[in-house]
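Sequence only, no structure available. Ideas?
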Amino acid sequence: MDRPKPIPIGRKLAAVASLAYAKLVLLAYWIVSNLIPSWRENPTWTLRRAVGFRLSGWAVSEFSQKFQELCSRDFNAEPDEEELKRWNVGFARTEKLEGPLTGEVGRLEKEVDVKRMKVGVYWYGPQDDNGRQNYCAAPGERVLLFFHGGKYVIGTAHPSDMTSFIPSQLCNFARTVQRVAAVEYRLSSMTADAATYPFPTALIDAITSFRYLLDLGFDPVNIFIVGDSAGGNLALALTRYLVEEERLSLAGLILLSPWCDLTSSHSRPGLSRQMNVEKDVLGSAIDPGSYATNAFLCGMSPENRYISPSCKWIHPSFRGFPRTYLAAGEMEVFLDEIRTLKSRMEGAINGGLVYDETPGAPHGEPPLPCHRKARLSPETVDFCVISFMEPERSQLVTRVAEWIDDVQQPADNYLICV
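Reply:
I predicted one. Tokens follow.
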């Protein structure tokens, strides 16, 4: 397996200095500059939310891009028993994916020369006394397969990451699903010489994790695929492969603020990519030509149904897709491409579509500097973990859980229901 290079002590010190600057200087500035409601990005926000918005935007656009290796975990890292107990999770590794993949994904895997690997999976839900359990499926058991966000270049499935709120809380709120398998897929990166783990590497890892669930005895019709932001993009790609190439039926697809167009087809005046750039924590960090898109694509055209299903220049089919829950925030830069995805999925998917748009909400909370052993201590980054999108965040998770359980709710219980 690939072994990451040790992080020089100078890089660690530079990251600590950057975090200290944000905490001691930028934080004070943001507090003062948002004291009066009319000065805030959204005058209805509290001071805490307005400052949290600025802090998260800084983490996404500046810190995470400058210190990418410190905002993610080593995908080869094995958590010890003490760590598993502390976070009340389990951990397992899949076997390597066997057999050829078909269609375009199989062709691209060979062209890019993707090396298959054993993929780490964190299990959220009931654990035994040792933090581990028998992961095999009970008869008829339903499960969620979760892919975290982070622009394909940062983030982790580890419970220290902010996106762990989603799998951990879905376990608590959903009555018909008790376990979530969160996937530690490989992230893309780029140097002056080459890109590492570009598309379709993450998709190969996603397929590997899905086959792992099948090996544990889960039936495809009992597997929900869930993705947040870039993880939503990956969830869409995995679902497309399973539906188009393997002709499988799934329990459902849950897309939380998915990144669904890596082209510039939604980067025109009057659309959310430009209108919301100052209102959203993502800003321009995911624009065509950004570090994230360049690292993920490695020169490949984004006009591909596996990469940009909302691209206005292509017209992918969604025939055979399972029932879907699609969520977005009114202030996020992805809004228009998510609305395009909504219009394309309507009437084409089995079991219907629920579209949930939260007024006044930016993109979901980004993965911020991760608590990882031998890198940055939790004390260094505590100030970055600000859950400023409450109660909307918990309310959305509750609605998703009700949808998973197929609880019939009045239309006005959803902000927008289609």
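The first strand starts at residue 89 and ends at 93.
Hope that gets you unstuck.
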